[in-house]
Every structure is written in C-alpha cells, then in structure tokens.
Task: structure prediction
Amino acid sequence: MKTTLSGLLAAFLASLVSGQVSAPVPGPPRQAVIAPDGNSNFRLWTNTAGKTLEATFRGVENGSVFLQARNGFVHRIPLEALADADRRLAMTMKPEGLGIPRDPGVAQAAAIIDKGVLMGLTKAGQKPNPLASDEQFIRRVYLDLVGRIPTREETLEFLNDSSSSKRGNVIDRLVNSDGFTSRMYNYFSDMLRIADDAQKAKFYSYQEWLKDQIARNRPWNEVVHDMLVADGKMLENGAAGYLLRDRGMRLDNLSLTLSTFLGANVACAQCHDHPFADWTQKQFYEMAAFFGASEAGERLRPGMALRGLREELGQQAFQQARRLFDVNSLSIKDVQENDLTLPPDYKYKDGKPGDPVKPGLVAWSKDDHRLRCYQAVENELKKSGSESRLREIFAGWMTAPDNPRFAMTIANRLWRLVFGVGVKEPVTDLDSPDDSSNPALLQHLANEMVRLKFDIRAFMRLLCNTQTYQREAVTAELAMGEPFYFPGPTLRRMTAEQAWDSCVTLAIGDKVDQFKLKRADTYAQVMNMTGTDMSAEVIKEKLTAMQDMRKSAAGAFGFDGKGKAGAKKKRAMARARTDASEGEDHNQPETMGGLVLARASELRQPERDDHFLRMFGQSDRQIADSNSEEGSVPQVLMLMNGEAQGVLSSRQALAVATAEKQESAQAQVESLYLSFFSRRPSPEELKSIYADIEAGLKPGDLAWVLFNSREFVFVQ
Result:
C-alpha cells in the first residue's frame, strides 16, 4: 500500500498522543498559537465566497498568496480570490517563518517534522531558537550540503535575492550539485573505512563506484544491497570492495555491517553473549552463517612460465609480480556449502564447539517475525539450492523497507550529519529506540526515509527545509548523556574535509569542483589479468606499466615530508596532471604554493599524516566513523604557520586578490569577511580593523587573522 504524507501525519500525531512524546504541558493560554513548523500568528483567511482557512502567512509571489494550514499543507491562492480585507492585509504582511516553499509537498513534510520536534521541546519545558539570519543560513547550508563555505559571490547572490523562496531554491540547487556528491562521499568513506590501500591492493574501483552511486542518486537500500551481494573481482566490480575490505575477517565484517547499517551493537556477541543486550553469541553466528558460503577468490599461480623469472627480474621486481597476483586474487564468490561452525571455545548449552551453524535472523521484538522481510527469508531458506544465495537472502532482508532498523539507522545518521546530534546516540546503537530523545520523531524519520524510497538527496533536502534546521544554533555545551531536544542545530566544529574544502574554495573559488580524480580505469587496465595472461612476456609488460603508473601517481600527489612539493615534485606534478587522468577527462588539479588544491574527496584516501586533512581530524580509515572534531596544539600551529595558511594569505588566493581590487579599505574588509564568514563586519569590527590598517595591515594579513579565528572553523 502506498505511503502518503497524510497517513504519516496521522500515525505521527497518534504516536505523540500515545505517550512516546507527550502533548504540550497544560498551562495558561499563550499569546500566540504555535504552528506545525513553530510559527505563531495563525489567523482565519477568508475568500470571496466566504470560506475560511486557518493558516499562517508564508508570503506573496507572482500574484498568489501562500498560506500554511495546521496540517502543514501549503495552499497557493490567487490574491484576487481573497476577500478585500485579507487581500490588502496580505500585500502588507511580512512572510512568516521560512517564506515561500519551492515545493509545497516538501514544506508539508518538513512541517510535520517540526511539529514532532516542537512537541518534544514542549514536554521538556524548552522553546525553539529564533530563525537563523540569512548570513548564518547560507554558510551553514553550504557546509552541510556541499561541504564547503560559499564563495563571496555566492553569498552576495543569496543575500541580495529579495524573493521569498530563496532558501528553498538554494537548497534545491545544492543537493543537485557536484559538491553534494563530494560531501556525501566524504561522510560515507569515513563510515565505510574507504582507503586507497588495503589487502595489498588499491581500492580505486570501490571508491569511484561509490562516488558514481551518489552522483546518480541511487537509492540507499540499492547501494547497500549491491555491496552485500557483489561478486567477482574488485577490479571489475567496485561494489565488491565492501566485503573485500575485510577479506579473511568474516565475523568482523558482519559486526561492522550490523552496527553501520542497522545500528545493532553486536561487537560483544562475537565472543560471548552480550552483557547488556539480548544478543547471544549463537545468534551472532547464525547471522554470520549468511556469509558462510562466500569465499575470497583463489590466489592466481604463476605456473611453469615464471620458473627462472626471479633470476631474470631480480628480487624486487619479482615481489612486484607477486603483488600483481595478489591484486587479481581480490575477488569474492559463493559456493554450494555453508562452512561456518561454532568456535573452538564455545561454552554455552545451545551448541558445541565445531557444530555447523544454520542461518538465522535476529529480531528486536516478538512481532518482528510477522514482517514481510522475515517471512521472505524463512521461505527462501526452505528452497533447495539456497546455500549459494545466502548473501542475497540476507541483503534482501536487511535493506527491506519494513526492516525495523535499516531505514531508521540511515535516517538517524543523516539527521546527525546536519544537526550535529542524532535523535538516538550513538548512531551505531539503535537496539532501544525508545531510549532516544524523541522516539516518535525517530520513527517518523524512518517512515519518511521509506516514503522517499531511500532517496538520500530528497531526505537531506527535507531536513534542510525544516524550521528546526533553519533556527539559530545551540551554543551551550551539551551535557554528557543528557537528551537533546533540538531547539536548533548544535554549534559544531567543521570536519577536516569541510575545513580543507573551504580553504580550497578561498583559494580558487567555484573552480573547487572542476577536478575529478580518475584512477580506477587506469589501475584496472594495468593490473587486471586472466588465466591466459600467465606468460613471462605478459608479466614483464605489466611490471613496466606498473612502474609508469607509480611514477605518475607520485608526481601528482607525492610531496616531501612537510606536505609541500619540492622542485622535482613540481615538475612531476605538471607532467602528472595529465597522466593521473589518462584515458579519462584529462582534467587537471589547481596547484598553489606546492599544494594540490582539490577537494578532499579527490585526494589520497586518507591523506598523509602531515597533511592538513589528517592534522585537522581526518580518520585513518581503520575504524568506522572515527573522524575527529577535537582541537589540538599541532592543529593550531598548522593554522598559524602551515602551508594552507601561506596559500590563503598570499595575493594568489582568490579571496585576497578580490579584496585587493576593492577601492576602499572598508570594501576590502567587507570582501574578506564575506569570503570567510559569509557576512559583513559589524561597526565595532570595522573600527578595530581600521586602526590595524593604519598601522600597515594588508588584506593578506587580515586573511590570516580571519583564517585563525574560531568563527571560521565552526558551523553555526
């Protein structure tokens, strides 16, 4: 049955009344009634036929008035259809709340979310924050949706836009931009531990496959399904990289799969019954049995043709030849027999060490087995030949719309991405959703994800259109373990990728998204082999191609120990700009001060330890969700004296060059403030800076000051 907004609204309001989130606390009458999105000023509007509508005023545009009813629905009514008094009033009123929505359906869905947040706030005796200013909004929404600050020109275009629908318009533009792909790739690569190097191979095919899924807006359930059922070589099927990332560690991969995609905290159950949850070790192994018939590909053997090749090539080259075989053995396939057994140290009464384990599913409630996704698994397991399709059966269950946790987990993760805190924390533990700060809201977000058919763009668009998102940030430090009811987003530090991409934007402007790193096809062409390629002559050709490929990679991204290119490296960089994208679009990265100015998503995954990204908190991709937003002394020193600071304060940087073109000192200062903070300086700030300008402060010096300010590195 098709899910509708009206049906979701009814279910959501019922859950609010049922006690999961209580109704407003009784008390004296308020001065104004709160609308579904937190607005006040409900009034009765009358048309020329005498019919009335209780609604808030959203704005007037193109001869129509936009009114939002209590159920969140936005009505577009021609001005001439209103009674004379209401028509005159509409022409004089200022828009309430967020102005005119670009899509009334999105506005209604956003209002339902806002109503749930407002109910939670009311129960806790709290009030929502005021709406954020346009300056705060434009910087926040760029950082959240495309992972960088807006350019000076992008900020001015938005601030100078007088239309009532400009916020909705910019949200739509950003979620459909290349920057959105980069932003979401950075998030998912930390979540999925995506790295250039793993299992003695380069995981370029996996990286570019994921970027392509995001760019094409593949539904999240389909993306995850493909990762779980992928087979063959990773060189030929990038989706296989997910399981091959943990080749030989079947149980560890399952633990990560369950916590990442289902919020199931099962790490303890891998070795013993979980002490705080209902998971048992037997249940964990029953889940792992769905992968018991999956095997990593067999290692290719060089055979008779390579006898004596060690002497001919030398030890180092021969080791490279062995690496060639290692890369080609990175594959996965399903067989006819499930070989998983209980571990040798198994000590519970429901089995003995070495017992074969049959596949089985965990359930979070006694009613879960009635769900269609559970019944489908039971039916499939009864069929003959199911052993070779166990991964497919498991993937179908896990990504099903009615799985109790799949939609909820990704919805909670994306909520945390833009609000700074999940409705349920941590996002990897959803075993008890009722322990969240707002259980009804959490369930509603899961329902919305299903209604939107796991469309990540549509879901992010919806969240950013809520009044909750567009409120002023909460600046108070959150108490450990205390629930957060979302009077607004939290004030939070930029991620490493946001900070780096913002630096690149300040240096080269909107060219930040032009360079796309393409390495998978070249790598696969050089490394891929078949059973007929085992001759010594073919191996020699492959080794020569591998050597040329390494030189190109070192030229494009090989810095010295300080993260800065030396003279030889600079020459190599110039040559490698084309080589790095051989066979592709031949796009070239910008360089300045010896740094490659490309998006974090288009650089090494992860970067070297001494790079800006790593020092600012980019994870080493060994542990899922391990990016850090904590400050450190080396980080402060890097901001003050590092290569990025040198680039941003130089006259080559676009932000500084643009400021220097301004005719007056005030215009120069305003230009830099707009570039760094997306706002103009206050009179007090101007007065203070004028004194410094008279003392010799240059635009590059002011850029250094702004770059090192707390305001620059925080999302507010």
About this structure: The radius of gyration is 28 Å. The chain has 31 helices and 13 strands.
